[in-house]
Structure prediction request, 116 residues.
Amino acid sequence: MNFGACLWDIRLSSYEEELKAFRKMDSIDPLQLGGLENLLDSLGIFLSCCTEVSLSEDESFVRIYKSVTLETMEIVRADSSFNKNSWFSDIAVMMDVEEAKNYKSNEGMCFGKVNN
Prediction:
């Protein structure tokens, strides 16, 4: 994978304060805000499946990138300037079949973005 520019670094120790700041931003897209509001719950579900991973709330942060280029050369974009464009909508990532049993999924789909 190849990561694009960093949009945000969100410290887990100050997550609630940072979320309040995001809610006040004029430039944040409602889809981005919705994702950020569900970030901790989703991270908790992910970590509950990974017995080998632990996080220190004081030292850990989540980095949100503008885009990621997958090995297949497809690009997943998280920047709101791509919202409502065909290359932003209906993104899905399929996990390796052998790894899928280690994660909660829906027919092997580990996440997806759907239109409203």
